[in-house]
Amino acid sequence: MSPREDLRDLLVERSVRLGDFTLASGAKSDYYIDARRTTMSAQGQLLLGQVAYAAIRDSGLDPTHVGGLTLGADPVAYAIAHRSAIEGHPIDAFTVRKRAKDHGTGQRIEGGLTDSGRVLMVEDTMTTGRSTMEAVEAVRTIGAAIVGVLTVVNRAEGSEDFYRRQGLSLISLFSGTDLLEAARSGGG
After folding, report:
1. CA-to-CA distance for 92 and 76, rounded, in angstroms?
2. Strand order in the sheet with 65-69
3. N or C: the chain end with fewer CB closer than 10 Å?
4. CA 124 → CA 63, 107, 127, 162, distances in Å?
5. Cα(44)–Cα(182) distance, rounded to whole angstroms?
6. Nearest-angstrom CA–CA distance, 124 and 173
7. Tens-digit pLDDT profile for residues 61-111
8. CATH of domain 3-184
9. pTM for the whole thing?
């Protein structure tokens, strides 16, 4: 199997739950995807780095940095950064805190991102795309250019149109529908 198929199967095994759930957006759903159960696992890191890095290279966006709002974006960004170094085309990672530290330098963005950065925002699971905009706005305050957004799982409930209106490309590694169908059919 390919790394993409292996990552899909790992997401189905570890991260997809069937039942009645309320999402961060407030919407009700008959399934939930806790992608961190995959993105924070050793095998998930390996596969995610391969699959996401390949998608970024195929997109032509050529970011210098990847990151987003902590906590969901962190393992995604770190897997991409690691893989990019192996591939010889480093893309550095950063993290956006929910609020600036109240001690030390008081930073909200950690990881060395500067105003010359070309940033691909990342997320683990996306429904409407609006929560990622909080990180986009934080990055824009330091003057870095946002080249697009990448999500591991896109539940496809308005995020494509939302980012199109924002003038940002959206890379989705998997759709929620694809993972849900695989889960209901008993796996990959």
Report:
1. 12
2. 109-110, 92-96, 65-69, 118-126, 145-154, 169-175
3. N
4. 18, 23, 10, 17
5. 17
6. 10
7. 999 999 999 999 999 999 999 999 999 999 999 999 987 666 665 589 999
8. 3.40.50.2020
9. 0.93
